[in-house]
Design brief:
The chain has helices spanning about 5-25, 60-75, 90-100, 145-160; strands at about 30, 40, 50-55, 80-85, 110, 125-130, 135-140. The chain has about 160 residues and is of the alpha/beta class. Strands 5-4-3-6-7 form a five-stranded mixed beta sheet, with helices on one face. Strands 1-2 form a two-stranded antiparallel ribbon. The radius of gyration is 17 Å and the shape is globular.
Length: about 160
């Protein structure tokens, strides 16, 4: 039995190393937003992109919207954007009314509900992935984010890159 433990440890280390390598690649993603415009993650290269998986029935998701809106409006012209990916079966007109009511201005696309996404695993909502200016996944967070926490992470990451 003792010989199994080092092999299991070695396999775990290899798996972590492979996951690190996989995350170092730019993510390829495209979707059609609620206005019929095709969105490509590569269009935002050079900016940070917060990809937020959410649903209208998800209370924490709805609570998070004002923070994401504030972050997007503060940074969309130069540093970062928010991209909302709605993961539910909802009619487009109902989704549009919801977004108008909540005053959401960042791009929203509807995507199929899935655990495995191009950015990583989604086990609960809201789940957000922060994509760095190179198009690589820099972080994942399950739960509510604040504009300040996103800004702090970006600032810390940029300091570490220098």
């Amino acid at each position: 039995m003792r010989s199994i433990k080092p092999v299991a440890l070695w396999m775990a280390v290899c798996l972590l190393w492979l996951q690190t390598l996989a995350q170092a690649e730019p993510v390829r993603f495209s979707a059609v937003d609620i206005d019929g415009k095709e969105l490509h993650l590569s269009d935002y290269r050079g900016k940070w992109v917060l990809v937020n998986y959410w649903a209208t029935w998800c209370a924490p998701c709805v609570k998070e919207i004002p923070e994401l809106e504030a972050f997007h409006n503060k940074h969309k012209e130069n540093k970062a954007v928010v991209l909302g990916l709605n993961m539910e079966s909802i009619k487009l007109d109902k989704l549009r009314r919801f977004l108008e009511d909540k005053k959401v201005t960042y791009p929203i696309a509807q995507v199929d509900m899935a655990v495995n996404t191009p950015f990583g695993m989604v086990f609960g909502m809201p789940t957000s992935f922060l994509i760095n200016p190179k198009g690589e996944v820099a972080a994942r967070e399950v739960g509510i984010l604040s504009a300040e926490s996103i800004e702090n992470f970006i600032e810390r990451s940029e300091r570490e890159q220098r």
